[in-house]
Amino acid sequence: MFMRIDHIGIACHDLEEKIALFSSTFDLTVVAREVNEEQGVKEAMLHVADGEGGGSYIQLLEPLSPDSPVGRFLAKRGEGVHHVAFGVPDVERAMAEIGGKGVRLLDERPRHGSMGSQIAFLHPKDVGGMLTELVQAPTP
Ligand code: V0V
Ligand code: CO
What DSSP line would sit under 71-96, residue for residue? Predict the structure, then answer.
């Protein structure tokens, strides 16, 4: 079902500060930036490696408002790992398969994600406390 870990999402208060930290500590390069109003985030993707069907990344996330998924997470838990995203060949098929096992889907249909991807989230309470994202990269 999964081709690779697409990205690890890190919640932070100050995107520019954390870009500087991750680039200098791990020698990573920012390959994309986006403001995603629907998800309530300003985000940056730092390239880690290339894998089957696409790359793997660290995704740094700053909330657009306190009343957003990442804003609420920061208030409750502080900065740190927010979600794990898996690359899948077909996000709708993965949603149907995983949803069929009783895991709650947080999205009824795929949403727009970073770098032109299609994404959907699974409820952390049904996956051992890990907020899980499914990512279908755009066809090249
Ligand atoms: C909340 N909980 C988490 C969590 N966020 N557990 C693990 N990891 C997280 N990130 C726990 C929380 O502690 C509560 O447990 C429970 O889930 C309900 O959370 P809540 O406090 O009521 O918080 P809400 O209202 O924010 O809801 C949480 C969910 C929400 C996960 C449902 O954040 C959501 O829909 N997330 C999906 C969208 C998203 O995260 N977008 C931002 C990334 P207790 O305290 O009751 O035990 S955007 C992105 O990744 C993009 C664009 C991309 O990759 O391209
Ligand atoms: Co993500």
Answer: HHHHHHH-SEEEEEEEE-S-HHHHHH
Look up residue 96 and give its amino acid: A
55-66 per-position pLDDT tens digit: 999 999 999 999
In this structure, the residues whose C-beta lies within 6 A of any atom of ligand 1 are: 9, 36, 39, 41, 43, 59, 61, 69-70, 72-73, 76, 82-83, 85, 106, 113-114, 117, 119, 121, 124-125, 129, 131, 133
Residue matched to tokens 């986006």 = 34
Which ligand neighbours the alpha carbon of 67 most closely? 1
Nearest CA to ligand 1 atom 52: 113
Percent of the chain with pLDDT over 90: 96
* Structure confidence at residue 54 (pLDDT): 87
Enter the pTM of the model: 0.98
Phi first, then psi: give them for residue 45, nearest 5 degrees: -105, 125
